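Hi all, long-time lurker, first post. I run a small reading group and we've been trying to get comfortable going from sequence to structure in the token notation. Rather than ask abstract questions, I figured I'd post a concrete chain and ask someone more experienced to write out its structure so we can walk through it together at our next meeting. Sequence below, copied exactly:
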Amino acid sequence: MERVFCYFISALLLATSMLASFSLAKTNISTDTMALLELKDHITSDPYSILAKNWSISSSVCNWIGVTCSYTHHHRVRALNISNMGLAGSIPSNLGNLSFLVSLDMGNNSFHGHLPEGMAHLRRIRFISLSHNNFTGEIPSWFGFLEKLQHLSLRNNSFTGFLPPPLFNISGLGVIDFSENNLSGIIPVDMCNNLPSLKRLLVSSNKLNGQILSGISKCWRLEVLSLSNNEFSGRIPREVGNLQMLEELYLGGNNLGGNIPKEITSLPNLRTFSVLSSNLVGIIPASMFNMSKLQYLHLGNNSLTGTLPENLCDNLPKIEFLYLIKNKLHGQIPSNIGKCSSLRELSLARNRFTGFIPQEFGNLTILEGLDISVNNLTGEIPKEIGNLTMIQNLYLYENNLTGFIPQEMGKLSKLESLDLELNRLGGPIPAWIFNISTIQFLSLSANSFFGSLPPNMCHVLKNLQGLYLAGNYLSGNIPMSISNCSRLTIITLLSNEFTGSIPDSLGNLRQLNVLQLSDNKLTSESSSQELSLFSSLANCMLIRHISLERNPLNGVLPNSLGNLSSSIEIIYAFGSGIMGSIPGSIGNLSNLIALRLDNNQLTGSIPTSVKGLGKLQGLYLHNNIITGTLSTDLCNLRMLNDFNISQNQISGSIPGCLGNITSIRSATVSVTDQS
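-- Answer (accepted) --
Happy to help. Here is the structure in token form:
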């Protein structure tokens, strides 16, 4: 009897326990559901209707998009991932009721506001990513209560204030990413005392200041340290060399100084080292080039001196990106560079290198970008450059290179940008240049190229956006086919010997921004006296700059001049034999900044419509045959800086209101006294 009674009591207790457990589970599931529904209510924009259509009480919360439940804790919500959904809104305090939540990812949305204190109740949380949103306010100190937190990313928001010290007491924290905010203050001196698990510390692109403290070495497990683009000062601490597990180190864009500590070169696992724009001086430690795991090295825009070692690439088998741009390095580029066979991008530009371009560059067969511009390199372009069949961007400008462009470069079928300007190269422009369909940017200006452009020059160049051939000895006509380069935004052919008429087909270049044809021997295509080019350019809705000066245009400005796009800012056509009067339609060009029609044969009076040129800063009409009087309409040009209408036949008095234009720096006006 006692045994039966005991079984009865045990069964009753078990049933009661199960009932209580079921009731508790139901309550907790309901709590999670209500917390998520409140989050849904705080969503102000759901462009793809993901939550609007899916988060409904008609189905279990565990079936909602972005929700993961635990099967060991009464189907409680364990993970919430609503990243990359284009959502906007704020976080309600009740989100903290998701007491079994382990992972929260709301990244890449448009959430805003402060983080609610209720989130401090997420005591099981291990992973939080709120990156790429619009959150504001200070980073809450209650993050320090989340003792199980391992990953915290608040990247790319608008958080302000200091780094919260309680956060640095979470011993299991492995990732801190606060990059791209507006944080200020210093990194706490004792930050690393209680962070034995920290592997990634990213606080770049903020306003943090002070010195990079030697205590950072206590975060001995660090694999990634990113402090770039802040306001840190002082030297790079030698103790960084104690971070033996470090793989990536970003310190650029600060107010640092001093030398590169040689201790950094002892880091056995370092793959990335970037300290650009940091006022560094001295020589690059020779041991830097013995770091066999190094893949990315950026020391650009400093004041580093010295030469590159002859054995530069003996021990850099994995280097892919090497940027030493804008320093004070000198000497020759080592021929050993050819052994860095993994290089994809190499920039040695804006230094003081001398000597020839090493033919060993031809061994870098997977190179995609090469920039050795603005040095003192001499000699010819080596034909081995033609081996760089993966090259996309090739910059050799502003050196003292001579000779021709090698025919072997015709094999560079992936070339997108070629800049050889400001050298002493000569000969005809090779025909192969006009057969590379990928080319977008071509600059051969300020050399000694001669010959004519091929009639079908744009038959293949469908991607060409910038054409810079100024300052050469090119002759012949501008090909009519230039309009087939339909993506052209900039054409610079000034200071050559082009002849013939300017093709009206230029007006078919609907994306054209800049047209510079000055200092040639070009004429108008029109059979009448009107300069038809201006009529055709009215189709170029993005045109900003037109330079036609010092060509024998010998025509009349058409009334369609006023039909040019409202984007036009500069018109230069001085010294071009232009006749007739200034059309009244010119007043339509409301964004015009500079107008130069001086040294022509213009007649008639200055049209009163010039009062519509409210942004005009420079007006040059001198040395023409303009008559009439000066109208007070000129006084509407309130932004005028330079003004010259001398050497004409203007009569009457100078309007006194011109003296009220405070922006004028230079004014030259002469009138004829008729008394």
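A couple of things your group might point at:
The helical segments are 2-41, 50-54, 532-537.
The chain has three helices and 48 strands.
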